[in-house]
Design a protein that fits this description.
Length: 172
């Protein structure tokens, strides 16, 4: 998931949250013998709903796709446009539109790549870093508030599940 995660298609997914799985899909999600029984559909719904709750704060006027692009450029930059498009799993033309908006707001700088006149590098500006920091802090604060409503045994279960969730999200 893009960190503040951007889950395009959530609206269509959320409309189908309560729809039963087709019989072949349900069979394909059967755990291996001896593995704990985890309801994948229930986990998916919980993760999507939590993600949606965390995005309810101010994103500095950015769409989830713009924020994801800015976050990836901040984490991996300076980065070539083509590499960033591949990382974001979007078409280069879509990335160009996103970068145009971010550049117009002063959040990124696009410069020619040294040694390759056809390629461009994207770097997050100090203003972009400040916006990313504020959004991350707000999201972390919101999640801390949400977590404070849980009893200690559920907090311990989440703490124990965190390494597995990080692996599933591709960040661990």
């Amino acid at each position: 998931m893009r960190e503040i995660a951007s889950d395009e298609g959530v609206d269509s997914v959320s409309r189908a949250e309560s729809a039963p799985l087709p019989p072949d899909a349900a069979a394909a999600s059967t755990p291996a013998p001896g593995a704990p029984d985890i309801d994948a559909a229930r986990l998916r719904v919980a993760v999507l709903r939590l993600s949606r709750r965390l995005r309810k704060h101010d994103l500095a006027g950015l769409t989830p796709s713009q924020l994801s692009t800015l976050s990836s450029a901040g984490k991996h930059g300076p980065i070539r446009l083509g590499d960033l498009a591949a990382m974001e799993r979007i078409a280069p033309s879509t990335l160009t539109r996103l970068i145009n908006v971010l550049e117009g707001r002063g959040y990124v700088l696009r410069e020619a790549a040294p040694g390759d006149a056809r390629a461009f590098l994207v770097t997050v500006t100090p203003q972009g870093q400040e916006v990313l920091g504020r959004i991350r802090q707000e999201a972390t604060s919101l999640l801390t508030d949400i977590l404070s409503t849980l009893p200690p045994d559920e907090l311990a279960a989440l703490a124990a599940a965190l390494p597995a969730l990080e692996r599933l999200a591709g960040s661990g």
